[in-house]
Amino acid sequence: FNISSGIFGRKSYIKRVGNDGKSAAEKDPLHPELYVNHYILTEKDALSLYSSPNVEIASHGTHHLVQSDLTKELTEEEITQDFERLSELFGYRVVGHAFPKDTFNGNVIEALKRNGALYARRVSRERPKDFSFNRNELILMPTCRHTDPFSDELLNKFINTPAGNDDMVFVLWGHSYELDYGTKLGCYEHIERLFQTV
Questions:
Q1: Three-class DSSP category at 59
Q2: Residue 119, Cα to own-chain centre: how many angstroms?
Q3: Is 102 exposed, middle or buried (0-12, 13-18, 19+ CB in 10 A)?
Q4: C-beta of residue 67 within 8 angstroms of C-beta of residue 99
Q5: Residue 119 carries which DSSP code?
Q6: Quick check: 94 and 143 in contact, CB under 8 A?
Q7: CB-CB contact of 98 with 142 (8 Å)
Q8: Inter-CA distances, 81 with 60, 62, 111, Å
Q9: Residue 94: how many CB atoms within 10 A of its CB?
Q10: 185 to 36, 98, 111: CA distances (angstroms)
């Protein structure tokens, strides 16, 4: 789970339809059905929910800022402070990061390396050609988003691909609020089917 340590407890809304992914301080009173809650857990709730041996916490930037424009000074606040705070909160060294809105620059990459990041996840925009995985690269391209129409197909293909000499990985990503969309793929039933397949 990618967490931004500087925005615990923030409440907003996200548009249910479309791909703009924009949050808003208030719902449009004429069209409340277009929005889903985007409530970020409090620090206490996050500790309770994510303190499990089956869960890994990773960074998402202290304040979830667009990272392509970060200066060195802001990068320290967004990357280093987030890694330090999350490691302190959860009691183990955080080693992963997900780029907010798939944005980053050289300052961010340098800070990730300085902080011992083992991977930094981007977002998938296209269907992958294969499931290859290079463990020596910092930047990780995921396989698909849980709301992609081909997520079931790719997962089954991955499971049924014979083992070979090369490393392979299936990385499924998404946002928890997308499970509240109430669509065929943006729902708990769909992601639960994926988990049952695994």
A1: strand
A2: 12
A3: middle
A4: yes
A5: E
A6: no
A7: no
A8: 11, 7, 10
A9: 24
A10: 15, 22, 36
Residues 6 or more apart whose Cβ sits within 8 Å of residue 41: 8, 9, 49
Question: Within the chain, what is the greatest distance between any pair of CA atoms?
Answer: 57
Structure confidence at residue 195 (pLDDT): 95
**Phi, psi angles (nearest 5°) of residue 51:** -85, 80
Considering the entire predicted model, what is its pTM? 0.90
Amino acid, single-letter form, for residue 12? S
* Residue 87 token pair: 């490691």
Reported as a single tens digit per residue, the pLDDT across 32-51 is 888 888 899 999 999 999 99
Q: Please, which pLDDT band fits residue 106 given cuts at 50, 70 and 90?
A: very high
In angstroms, how far is CA 70 from the centroid of its own chain? 19
